[in-house]
Each structure stands twice: as structure tokens, then as C-alpha cells.
Amino acid sequence: MANLEDLPLRNDLKGRKPYGAPQLHVPVALNVNENTHRIPEDVAVDIIARLAKAVLDINRYPDREFIELREALAKYLDADLTADNIWAANGSNEVLQHIFQAFGGPGRKALGFGPTYSMYALIAQGMATDYVDVARLDRYELTPERIRVAILEQKPNIVLLCSPNNPTGTPLSLSCIEAAYEAVSEVTGGIVVVDEAYAEFAGDTEISAISLLPGRERLLISRTMSKAFAFAGARVGYLAADPAAIDALRLVRLPYHLSAFTQAAALGALAHSATMLATVDDIRYQRDRIVVGLKELGLDPFRSDSNFVLFGGLQDPDAVWQALLDKGVLVRNVGIPGTLRVSAGTEAETTAFLQALREVLAN
Ligand SMILES: *Cc1c(COP(=O)(O)O)cnc(C)c1O
To answer: Are residues 263 and 341 in the same domain?
Structure first.
């Protein structure tokens, strides 16, 4: 076997590391913000029936434009959208990659507000797009002013706003998104991507940026079925935007990128969206339990509108991470000094995490 260094790899990929949250088999896995509840059995049965039907035609390519799925997603978003406003791909990571393929590339620049989702920088690298990380304010908050100044200074072609933000959980106000759109319109006429991977977990304080779409043809709102929908293994992400933006993404996708099985499974899940989302309230409750429990332990949880909590106040996060793992609880060290991130699980998993952490810190 050759070494990576022996291969004629693109220069800008030399020395890079692939995305790599550890995939360990443990009793309590709370490290990648999945919905840890299994999907309801009646939905599973319906999905299996749809997959069985799809396999009968599997000798044919699937609907390249996945119209039925786009219609179902438009209906789910319930915001005066039609199939023409919707795009989808194998996870919202692929949706983001399509965005970079269409609107990024050599000589172009993307801007994110860190710490934020690590895939933004990785997808930018893969698409040979410059990536600039502008630091968030105290406690990872953002203001319209901060966003405006950064955009006027950096002149990006793509602005990435994660709402609520991963890995910090921070909500984002609609005025921040309006400010980003206005500023980027002044400097480059670039696009604004709002990543709403965790939107279903947000409280009543913030509403989706989908309400801002009318009149903003360069605003793209990315969503996923991986988190609230408990559908991470199916790989379905989607996007709402002006039909012209969707046409741009159709230029770069590979033909038939959504398999017949993926389309059938996603349609099955969407046909039962209320049942699929029934665990969301409990997950939010467990998240709030985590916040309270962490404060009781003298730790410093950050404001979260998501299904996870970032918390500080740890002297040695690596040691705590390992000690939790030794007790069968997997959380995430995202590399922010003094912190760890934990996903809200079932009631039992959340209890196991809080109990294990209490024991670890007592030692
Ligand atoms: C989990 C996550 C995604 C979703 O990725 P998929 O490819 O849809 O599974 C997107 N954005 C953020 C910020 C995430 O945390």
C-alpha cells in the first residue's frame, strides 16, 4: 500500500484531515446530536412497504427531479412554498456541497462565525473556496452589527449562518439574517445560507428564516431530516429558496443523486411527520434538564435552542471525556478549551449522563 504522500493529491488537500467524530459502540452515545429515539414502529412498517414497492422498479433510474419528495417537503414546511422552491440531497452536507459547487470555487470566499459547524470549512476546502472564520462575541452570541461589519470587511460570496448554532447551541435572531443579507448585497451580491439543521428544537423565541424568503432571492435555507426527524441513517437534507437558486443547484448535482430507496423512505417519514416529531418536546425537556443539572454541578452551560448543550468550567475536558467513556457515556470534545458538548438523549440516557458526570467530577 502506498502512502498518501506518494499520491498526486491536489496541493490544497495535502496534510488535511477528514471529518472524524469517533464512531464508538457504547451504551449511551450522545456525541453527534442524533435523535436517540428509534422511529415509531408503525412508521417503520410503512417505510418498509414503500421500499418493497420501490425495489420492484429498481432496474430503472429514479425520478431525477424527485418531484414527489419536493412536494412533500414543501408541504411539511407549510410556508406558501411549492416544489420549485425545494431542493434535497443525501444529507444537508451534500446540499451545502451543491451550494459551494454552484456559488463558490477558486477565487471566491465563504464566511462563517466560529465556533460553528466544522463541515463549513471542510466543504469549502473540498471546493477550493477560501474560508474565513470570524469570531463570535461573548458567550458565542451574534449581533446584526457584528455580522454587518464582518461582511463589509471580508466581502464574502457565501455567508454561512447556523441557526441555532452548532456546537454552541446559540439561537440567531431574524434581524441578524436580515443584516447579513443586506450587507452582502452591498458588497458582492453573494448568497446567505441559513443552516437550520436544529430548527425543530428551537423555542418559541425564534422563528424560521423561511419567513424571510419573499423578496430575497439569494437567501438559501438548509434543513435536514437527520436530527429532529430521527432519520440520520437515511441521509436526507433539503433546502428552501427562490426557484432560480434551485436551478443553480441542478447544474452541479450528479444525475439521479437521490436513490429510489432514499426518496421512498423520506416520503414515508414525511407522511407521518407529526408522529416522527413526537419526541421533540421530550428532547427539549431533557436538554433543559441537562442545563439545570450542569449548573448544579457548578459547570457553565451555554444558552441552547437545540438538542445539545455545550458546557464550560472543565479543567481537563479530555480527562472528563475519557472518564465518561469509561462509564459507557460518549460525548463530544469539539476543541473549545474547557468545554464538552452533550446531546440530549432519552430520559434514561440523560439521567445516565448526569449521573456519570457527577461521579467523574466527585473523583
Ligand atoms: C447535523 C448537522 C447537519 C446535518 O447534516 P446531514 O448531512 O443532514 O446529516 C447540518 N448542519 C449542522 C449544523 C449540523 O449540526
So the answer is: no
Pocket test for ligand 1, best of 227, 258, 332 (most atoms within 8 A of CB): 227
DSSP secondary structure letters along 127-187: TT-EEEEEEP-GGG---HHHHHHHHHHH--SEEEEESS-TTT-----HHHHHHHHHHHHHH
Encode pLDDT of 205-254 as tens digits.
557 999 999 999 999 999 999 999 999 999 999 999 999 999 999 999 99
Distance 93 CA to ligand 1 centre (A): 6
> Are both 148 and 212 inside the same structural domain?
yes
- Is the CB of 92 within 6 Å of ligand 1? yes
Are the C-beta atoms of residues 192 and 184 closer than 8 Å to each other? yes
Which of 251, 271, 291 is the last residue before a domain boundary? 271
Boundary (domain end) residue, out of 238, 271, 304? 271
Q: What's the pLDDT tens digit per position in 263-294?
A: 999 999 999 999 999 999 999 999 999 999 99
Residue 281: how many CB atoms within 10 A of its CB?
10
Is 8 contained in some domain?
no
Span from the CA of 113 to the centroid of ligand 1 (angstroms): 16
> Which backbone phi and psi does 246 adopt, to 5 degrees?
-65, -40
Q: Which three cell numbers stand for residue 13?
A: 488537500
- pTM higher than 0.85, yes or no? yes
